[in-house]
Design goal:
The complex is a heterodimer of chains A (about 180) and B (about 325). In chain A, about 30% of the residues lie in helices and about 25% in strands. Chain A has a 5-stranded parallel beta sheet with strand order 3-2-4-5-6. In chain A, strands 1-8-7 form a 3-stranded antiparallel beta sheet. Chain A is of the alpha/beta class and about 180 residues long. Chain B contains 12 helices and 9 strands. In chain B, the strands form 2 sheets. In chain B, strands 7-6-5-8-9 form a 5-stranded parallel beta sheet. Classes of the chains: A alpha/beta (about 180), B alpha/beta (about 325). Chains A and B meet through loops of A and helix 1 and helix 12 of B.
């Protein structure tokens, strides 16, 4: 059940534009940057950020795809084990400033897994984290460098980021499970 | 689609979605083999035992590499260097190994059904790495992955499997898998090496190599085991090579220009395959070996995950 809308398409668009500018500002341009999106919606967001930076700065920042399934700490704790869909990073990680991109930051465990997965591929100069929605409830000492929106939530709610490419619309909503 | 089985014993018992899940997972895992540091932490703390009662280079090495790339501990038992030779039965050996708490046992044995016997009596996962003339499921999976990589799809393709079909677990597993995925299969070989009721497996039968390889997408040549000659099933190796050996001339005369040549290995050069064909542009034999590691990683990952899920569900159940 949808409880509230958090971002509409225009607000989502503005958040991504602001994050693009913040990335350029913090890194003094886009020269040594690379985006790594976490499957599935993190990749789409990373591609949109790369397009925006190309429009602002004229630099095409490469985008890679990271699948963290093999690095999860809950293999077997879920009912169904997740599909392995593969990592595809078409550039050397070594020496790059990598911006990890994901849609929602919650406990931080996914990002912990992503950091391990990324570092196994080489030694980046720096890793930064860009997140569309930070919903709190961290279980690990992880904080984002770029945030679209901070959103206080309760643990039983879930945050759904819907993107045109997957869901036919751009918006972010809070959902609550129906009472049984 | 989620994997639920604790064992991988046959292709025959799998449904098409399970076969596709195995191939898809293997395709995703292949990237690990291209890394500078070929290691992911997924199966840390898991123990895999390779229990090989028949000689094997490719399959055993491939399971060992697959387990190690996933960070499992891999232990090898082979018939020549263990108590197997001292007369201990298969079940006794297996129970003793199980007492050491492995997570997966990979077994190769000359008796059909050996893997299933172990699976029924052991709590850990069991992978059939070849049982007699019965099945060799991971070989079929790596063959299917190799074909799909090259052709882009599987459904609708036509494969000729040539050689000793009657004694081949590779042929049997491939026939089951290919038929389930909507492929057409022609088996070809001398009548003594074709099983009597081959058509019941849903395949066409040919007794002439040139006919069998015409217009097919893939030619899979099987190893001719030399003991077939002493059993009187073929008159001589020379005659077999003349009629059933694939040479460049026969290939050019009858096969399509985009045909793939496969062989599960080890190749008898000059008998079923001429060296020019084995090393030539149509051959994907080395890709098969590379894909073997990816397929075995997928099998170990899915079996370990399914067993952990069952344990996890039991724990969650107690919590309620």
């Amino acid at each position: 059940m949808i409880k509230a809308q958090v971002l509409d398409d225009a607000a989502l668009d503005r958040a991504l534009t602001r994050i693009s500018h913040e990335i350029l500002e913090k890194n003094g341009g886009a020269a040594n940057l690379a985006f790594v999106g976490l499957r599935t919606r993190g990749v789409t967001l990373a591609e949109r950020l790369a397009d925006r930076i190309a429009a602002i700065d004229g630099t095409k920042v490469p985008v890679g795809t990271l699948d963290i399934t093999l690095y999860r700490d809950d293999l077997g704790l879920k009912e169904d084990q997740p599909m392995v869909r593969g990592t595809d990073i078409p550039f050397p990680v070594k020496g790059k400033t990598i911006v990890l991109v994901d849609d929602v930051l919650f406990t931080g465990r996914t990002i912990r897994a992503a950091l391990d997965a990324l570092i196994d591929l080489g030694r980046p100069k720096m890793i930064q984290l860009a997140i569309l929605i930070d919903r709190g409830h961290r279980e690990l000492p992880i904080r984002p460098d770029y945030v679209g929106k901070n959103l206080p939530t309760s643990r039983r709610e879930s945050v759904a980021v819907r993107l045109r490419e997957h869901d036919g619309e751009d918006r972010v909503v809070i959902e609550e499970p129906e009472e049984a | 689609m989620a994997w639920k089985r604790k064992d991988l014993l046959t292709i025959r018992e799998l449904d098409p979605a399970e076969i596709t899940l195995l191939i898809d997972t293997a395709a995703s895992l292949r990237e690990i083999g291209t890394r500078e540091i070929k290691k992911v932490p997924t199966l840390r703390g898991k123990t895999i035992v390779n229990l090989f009662y028949e000689p094997s280079t490719r399959t055993r090495t491939s399971f060992e590499i697959a387990g190690k790339w996933l960070s499992a501990d891999v232990v090898n038992f082979s018939a020549s260097t263990s108590s197997i030779g001292k007369g201990e039965t298969l079940l006794d050996t297996a129970r003793n190994i199980e007492a050491m708490s492995p997570d997966v046992v990979v077994v190769r044995h000359s008796s059909s059904g050996a893997a299933e016997l172990l699976a029924r009596s052991l709590k850990c996962g069991v992978v059939n790495a070849g049982d007699g003339a019965h099945e060799h499921p991971t070989q079929a999976l790596l063959d299917l992955l190799t074909i799909r990589e090259r052709k882009g799809h599987l459904e609708g393709l036509h494969v000729a499997i040539v050689g000793d079909i009657a004694h081949s677990r590779v042929a049997r597993s491939n026939i089951y898998g290919m038929r389930k995925l909507g492929m057409t299969v022609t088996v070809a070989g001398p009548p003594t090496l074709i099983p009597p009721h081959a058509q019941e497996l849903g395949v066409k039968v040919s007794h002439r190599l040139e006919d069998a390889i015409r217009d097919v997408d893939v030619i899979m040549m099987l190893r001719l085991q030399q003991e077939r000659m002493s059993a009187g099933l073929i008159p001589s190796l020379r005659e077999y090579a003349r009629y059933w050996g694939l040479t460049l001339d026969k290939l050019h005369a009858s096969a399509r220009s985009d045909v793939l040549i496969m062989h599960p290995g080890p190749v008898n050069r000059g008998i079923e395959l001429s060296p020019e064909v084995a090393d030539g542009p149509y051959s994907v034999i080395l890709e098969q070996a590379a894909n073997g590691v990816a397929v075995r990683m997928a099998v170990l990952f899915l079996l370990a995950g399914a067993m952990a899920s069952q344990d996890g569900q039991a724990e969650r159940g107690h919590g309620l």
